[in-house]
Amino acid sequence: MKKIYIIFLLLASLGMLWSCQEDEQVVLKHPDSFVLNVPKYASGIYDLKNMETIEFTTSQPDYGFTAVANYSVEISLTEDFAKSDTLPGTYTSAKFNVQAADIALALMGLYGIVDENEFPTEPFPLYVRLISVLNSNNDGAVKSNVIMLPRVKSYFALDPMVMPEEMYIIGNVAGNWSWDGATTMIPIWGTPGKFWSIQYLGQTGDGANAEIKFNTVKEWDGNEFGFSGTAINESGTADPGASDSGGNIGIGNPGWYIVVVTTTINGREYEYAVDFFPPHVHLQGPTAGGNWDTTDEIYRFAIPDLSLGADADFVSPPFTNDGEIRASIKLPGQEWWHTEFLVFDGVFVPRGTGDDQERVSGKAGQRLYINFTEFTGKIQ
Questions:
Q1: Which pairing describes strands 231-232 and 269-277: parallel, antiparallel, or unpaired?
Q2: Domain map (residue ranges) of the chain
Q3: Collapsed DSSP state (helix, strand, coil) of residue 243
Q4: Does the CA dihedral 342-348-350-355 come out positive or negative?
Q5: Cα(157)–Cα(330) distance, integer angstroms
Q6: Closest CA to 220 of 177, 265, 259, 175
Q7: Number of helical H runs and strand E runs in the chain
Q8: Average pLDDT of 18-36?
Q9: pLDDT at 322 over 60
């Protein structure tokens, strides 16, 4: 009987406990704010370039129960946070460290400065507050008080602009508006951001004139450029009859051209110039009578007739001597070898930005054939 009585008491106690738990409901409070503490060394200078982190401490918002809050850090150059930015990352403890580099990057956007020379060199006040939420649904969202770090010294934190290493031509002839078939332009040795290509810009099969556009990647990413905003043929010596064709560079005078793209950097923007030159290709060195840096017409390749279309060979004059074969185009302000090329096992290989190429020899009377569309060639 004693054991039965004890079991009865235990069951009764559990029932009362369950009843009490059901009566206690968890209610989420919505506090107006919570406290972000002023850092211990706030009166000093925060030199973001020469420090790794800034430590912050806070007290958790009063949600009415113990919960894990997620804090994000928001900064502004004004106390009213009229323009602000939220730093990357969230924190779940009451003491955490914020990366100084993240603050510096956010300040670039807040200042909106693209010229490094305009960035402030003297310390300035920075305003900070926290935003607390309980989950991904932003339940319990509440902002802390605003604190001021009176003297923050930042720096121009954007990565330096670098010249593009690749450039592509697309058009109704070059690639038929498909980036998969776009032409890869050839970088010019010793001149970052400058590229060349020999292009067939004749009419399409239905008689339409050629149109072209460019980009540094093989995709429509909004950075492609054509006629608008581009310096067109200010230095070129051939007249393609260029015009604005729906934003593309329309070719009014069908033909073969050396197309050159030159990139310059202005602040945080790329600027482009597109120039057109006659499609003159020359032998150099032993097979050109021992002449170097020559543009003599005697050593100039024959230009394919437009009726043959894009898939046609440029053909050199007969080699004057036995010896190594060298060939190039010649651009103003460039050495001939900055734009030289050879053929290896049937493949057209430009020097580009690389080292001196391996040697290929030929016999007097042979010719060099180059297909600039297919990047093929032969010696025979």
A1: parallel
A2: 45-153, 168-277, 282-379
A3: strand
A4: negative
A5: 40
A6: 177
A7: 2, 27
A8: 67
A9: yes
CATH topology of domain 282-379: Immunoglobulin-like (2.60.40)
Residue type, 207: G
Mapping DSSP to helix (H, G, I), strand (E, B) and coil, where does residue 306 land? helix
User: E strand or H helix at 75, and its extent?
Assistant: strand 70-76
Give dist(CA 247, CA 227) in Å, integer: 5
Tokens (6 digits) for 334: 């460039």
Distance set, CA 214 to CA 89, 141, 181, 350 (Å):
37, 47, 13, 20
At 90, the amino acid letter reads: T
List, for residues 57-78, the tens digit of each pLDDT value.
999 888 877 778 899 999 999 9
How far apart are alpha carbons 248 and 244 in whole angstroms? 6
Q: In CATH terms, are 45-153 and 282-379 the same topology?
A: yes
How many residues can be counted in the chain? 380
* Residue 266 exposed, middle or buried by CB count within 10 Å (0-12, 13-18, 19+): exposed
In a 3-state reduction of DSSP, which class is residue 293? coil
Q: State the CATH class of domain 168-277.
A: mainly beta
The pLDDT, as a whole number, for residue 191 is: 97
For position 27, what pLDDT does the model report?
A: 67
| β-bridge partners, 201 | 255
DSSP lists the bridge partners of residue 362 as: 323
β-strand partners of 349: 342
What CA–CA distances, in Å, run from 234 to 72, 246, 273?
A: 52, 21, 8
- What is the H or E stretch that residue 73 is in? strand 70-76
pLDDT of residue 17: 45
Instruction: Quote the CA–CA distance of 317 and 364 in Å, as a whole number.
Output: 10
List the beta bridge partners of residue 266: 269
- Cβ atoms of 35 and 144 closer than 8 Å: yes
**E strand or H helix at 347:** strand 347-350
Cα separation, 222 vs 224, in Å, equals 6
- Averaged pLDDT of the chain: 91
* Lowest-pLDDT choice from 52-66, 80-94, 286-300: 52-66
Identity (one letter) of the amino acid at 22?
A: E
Architecture of domain 45-153: Sandwich (2.60)
Helix, strand, or coil (residue 10): helix
Residue with tokens 């990357």: 88
CB of 87 closer than 8 Å to CB of 100 = no
pLDDT score of 284 more than 70: yes
